[in-house]
Amino acid sequence: MSNATATIEEQVHEHTALPQHRHHFETEEQQREAGSFGMWLFLLTEIMFFGGMFFAYLLYRNWYYPAFATASNQLSVPLGAANTAILISSGFCMALGVWASEVRRRKTLVVMLVLTTLFGLAFLGVKTVEYKEKYDHHHIPGNSFSIAEFVNPAAYGIKEEPLAPDMAQKTQIYFFLYFAMTGMHALHMIIGIGLLFWLTHRAWRGDFTEGYVAPIENFGLYWHFVDIVWLFLFPLLYLINRHPLH
Amino acid sequence: MAHEISHDQAHDASNVTNPEHAEHHIVTPLQYTFVFVTLLFFTGVTVGAAYVDLKWANPVIALGIACFKAVIVILFFMHAAYQSRLIKMTIASGFFMFLVLIAMTMTDYISRAWGMW
């Protein structure tokens, strides 16, 4: 009898100690598990979404390899590598933010979320510089696209094997995929940065340093997923064939 | 006694022996730092390897390094290493499904012009 009373008291205690615990979950742990599970399911749909573009890349790269290699060499490896480092740093700060939330350090969490945002904005800034350069060179697919630099690279001071005009046209497919993939990646980052502003505000209020970590943890999953997409985009788009003449 | 438990107390807080029970594991800043440094190091390696002529091995190495980096991000930054088997299975099945879709679509494209080369 006394044991049963103690159990009920424990239950009551467990119930009141965790305000984030919704009544339709048996335990707070089950609630957290369900949240992670749902977030991962969402990320799997994201894998399929980006996967379609990665498949298109794989196929066209095999079909039009010379066009892909030549066009890829027009991207800046230093900018791409710097952006990779910036994004990894952003992910690192996000990971530390999850830790700060778990050990209930409000100010550390806010600082980490702000740093995550700043690195994210720096990434987008570098990306803007790269896009502008493509615009200036008429390397955006469409009516104003110019194959001049690919058909006659010597005239532009580019050390590259010239492409035949029909193959040079296929560089448009490369640049289309480049803009589609990095553009969708950037859109994910813009959405992420919007969410970061909201999370930073709530973290400042103290919402996530009282034992309720789930929103920070699940946003972290999203942010790291976006990082992973870039970890594949960087070698596939920037580093196709750098060695022959460079 | 049991009949006196009201509805909102009826959940079984002691039900922690179920197979999905997973501790909320806290990954330390030191572990995150190791992962961070490893990721930066392999970014350098993948750039360096791209400038060396390794024939067919170039894309294989580039993708190998990218996969390795992705795996350590998933395991540690995304805490997959410390999650329940349900979550691990979910992650693995997603990537497996992705590989199946790539392989099936590729067999179609490769076999369309079969015997015409």
How would you state the average pLDDT of chain B, rounded? 85
CATH architectural arrangement of chain A: Up-down Bundle
Q: Enumerate how many helices of chain A there are, as a single number.
A: 9
Q: In total, how many beta strands of chain A?
A: 0
Q: Nearest-angstrom radius of gyration of chain B?
A: 23 Å
State the distance separating the first and last CA atoms of chain A. Answer: 82 Å
Task: Name the shape of chain A in a single word.
Answer: elongated
Number of continuous helical runs of chain B:
3
The domain tally of chain A reads 1
Q: How much strand content do the residues of chain B show?
A: under 5%
Largest sheet of chain A: none
| CATH homologous superfamily designation of chain A | Cytochrome c oxidase, subunit III, four-helix bundle
- Largest interface: which pair? A-B, 67 and 63 residues
CATH fold-level label of chain A: Four Helix Bundle (Hemerythrin (Met), subunit A)
Q: Could you describe the 3D structure shown?
A:
The complex is a heterodimer of chains A (246) and B (117). Chain A is mainly α and 246 residues long. Chain A has a single domain, classed as Four Helix Bundle (Hemerythrin (Met), subunit A) (Up-down Bundle), CATH 1.20.120.80. Chain A contains 9 helices and no strands. The longest helix of chain A is centred in the N-terminal third of the chain and has 36 residues. The radius of gyration of chain A is 24 Å and the shape is elongated. Among the domains of chain B are: 52 residues; 29 residues. The N and C termini of chain B lie far apart (82 Å). The relative contact order of chain B is 0.09. Chain B is mostly helical and 117 residues long. The model of chain B has no long low-confidence stretch (mean pLDDT 85). In chain B, helix 1 packs antiparallel against helix 2. In chain B, 61% of the residues lie in helices and 0% in strands. The interface between A and B is large, with 67 and 63 residues.
